Amino acid sequence: MAAEPSQCSPEAKPGTHGSSLQSIFRGQSFENGNVGPVGFDHSGNRIGQCLVLQAQGNEMVQVGLYDTRSQTLSTDGYTKIKWFGNKVPRDSARSSKTQLYLSPGIFVSMATVACVGMALVLVFLIFNLKFKRLRVIKLSSPMMNNFILLGCLLAYMSVILYGLDGQYLTERSFEALCTVRTNDALSLSF
What we know:
Number of domains: 2
């Protein structure tokens, strides 16, 4: 073991000599520790041998020994590793791309509600344009009402546009729809 730092004194405040103690610990190595050789790397991580255990049944059994110095795993002379389904598991996550579709029932019901809403908007727009000379309509700001109604119409249209997916369209028409969505009737409605 290395000698203790010469700066240590009983009057020293906690944390004063932490870096010097840390460098001393990093330099230590015990060849005959309780669990075999023990040391520390430059980051302060333990170097030595680690038991590899696996839960088999109701008990933990030793299935190997990993040596961090040589970075080797030894399984000779230990209990055999048991894998679920007797197959070695994948060593990475498996990813796959799947197309998600909107349920036809949901699309039809929402498109129906949107169409009813668009029909009502058109009725109100025609009413507003036909009776724009009436005093009551003039007082309600007919131009502002028309803009609001057109915004509502675009919002109802966006419900249908966002409900259409690759299930109902060809790839080419779906690309065109994505372009329309980029210009986004919903954002224009506001």
